[in-house]
User: Fold this.
Amino acid sequence: MKYIPTNRIMRLLTISYILLSLLMACSDGELEQGEEAMTEERGVENGERTENEEAALPSGIQKLLSAYPDFWDRADQEALWTQDQTKFVYDDGIPHKSYDSLLNYPDLEDQMSMPYPKGRTYLPLEPNEDPGRVRYEPLFTKMYGATKEAVRKNLVEIRWLPSTLNQSLLISKVNGVAEKLQAISDTLDKLPHLHKYLQKPGGTFNWRKIAGTDRLSMHSFGVTIDINVKYSHYWRWATQKNPLLYQNEIPLEIVEIFEHYGFIWGGKWYHYDTMHFEYRPELL
Ligand SMILES: [Zn+2]
Assistant:
């Protein structure tokens, strides 16, 4: 073989490397990344994202952003960051989870995956149609407190049905939940035909696991109320042969008032819990 000087080999290798890099830069992936980097730079320069960039985010991320505006700082296609720069990855990349895995090992995307039917039309419910029962617990421990004591520090008193019952309830002030439940209470206060369903409320704050599971109940976070147990149905308490045969006595007029203020209703779950309302504005 003809002798080639080492510096010439090096030159050839360098030229090949440059040509290869140029070719790769022309592939779609590199171009997209380049565009993204430019977009981010523009975002930083302007100090805010443009409307088009917001619209390009997955709809679940957009809903989380607008439901909890004081909690988040920003988001991109894959994650959301809280005000203190804690990163929440949206999608864990695990597809086709079983129903049990959705409940026990969800990500934020799973939490947003089942649409909640706002308003009066929601029946019949399909098996395991439980919009809101899939909860990514780290989001709620971060927002409302990770221990009983931490949650308790955020609780304030509201007056339930002030002109009649005037009962004191403890609710989290985080995300303005206490103010919203007070507004619900004031609205319901003026509707006496509904009062029998609202007396003797079953409870608000209670640091505990959901019955029969290892997951924290939303009652642990002080953003939930159970109304009068006497007129309520809970699938675990059902004495009928088929406990999942739907039952409800709670008027939808009550449900609509709660939904207006960002609370979802457990009566719209296949695993029904008709006394239960919880603050989940990302689903409304
Ligand atoms: Zn409840």
Observations:
- DSSP finds ten helices and nine strands in the chain.
